[in-house]
Amino acid sequence: MKYVYASVDESLRNFINANGGDNLSADDIIQDAIIVWYEKVKNQEFKLQTTITGYIYTVGKYIWYNKQRKNKRITHNEFQEAAIKDDDFTEQDFELFYIDKTHFVEKLLEEIGASCKKILIESIYMKSSMQEIAMANDLKNEQVARNKKSKCLKRLRKIIEATPYFQNVLKYLRT
User: Fold this and answer.
1) Which among 139, 130, 64, 70 has a CA at the least distance from the CA of 97?
2) Phi-psi bin for 118: left (phi > 0), alpha (psi -120 to 50), beta?
3) Phi–psi pair at 20, nearest 5 degrees
4) Which of 20, 111, 131, 174 makes the best surface tag, with the fewest CB within 10 Å?
5) Which tens digits make up the pLDDT trace of 66-81?
6) What is the CA radius of gyration of the chain?
7) C-alpha angle 129/166/137, rounded to 5°?
């Protein structure tokens, strides 16, 4: 662990200091990034696709980005410019570390259209009956509402199957 810490300390500390942080923040971020890596190794979820220090460095960058974003100190575009310089990973790969499930669902529902979005929200989240859904959506009857919901779910599945990003997020959420 000492070797891993020493290997990533200077580069990650320099990144954090160059992006509005201080040494105390850097200590916290480095420790958090190493813990993420350690937990992945411990749970046999870590797949080495780059150097360990490159992995921890990138995790640390994204932890720092999320902290800064929550504090509204930097914009997503400013961080994207810094992240593009890291050849080991793409931003989308590390987005998986910090998925906001609500945001993911909203993004997915945007893809299926307003009427399907409304029907699925009423059905799944609000637990409305098919009769209530039919009435709220000016559908002829419950069976028409069921058919519409079924078509919406099929459309949702097709979108997921056709979009690698959605597939990756779902794989991550299942673990």
Assistant:
1) 64
2) alpha
3) 90, 5
4) 174
5) 888 777 654 444 444 4
6) 21
7) 25
Which is it for the CA torsion 69, 73, 75, 76, positive or negative?
Answer: negative
Number of CB atoms found within 10 A of residue 57's CB: 22
pLDDT mean across residues, the chain: 78
Instruction: Determine the Cα–Cα distance for residues 158 and 161; give it in Å rounded to an integer.
Output: 5
Q: Which residue has the higher pLDDT, 156 or 86?
A: 156
To 5 degrees, how large is the angle CA 127–CA 131–CA 148?
A: 80
Give the length of the chain.
175
What tens digit of pLDDT does each residue of 88-114 get?
444 444 444 445 566 677 778 888 889
Residue in 103, 106, 90, 12 with CA at minimum distance from that of residue 53: 12
75: left (phi over 0), alpha (psi -120 to 50) or beta: beta
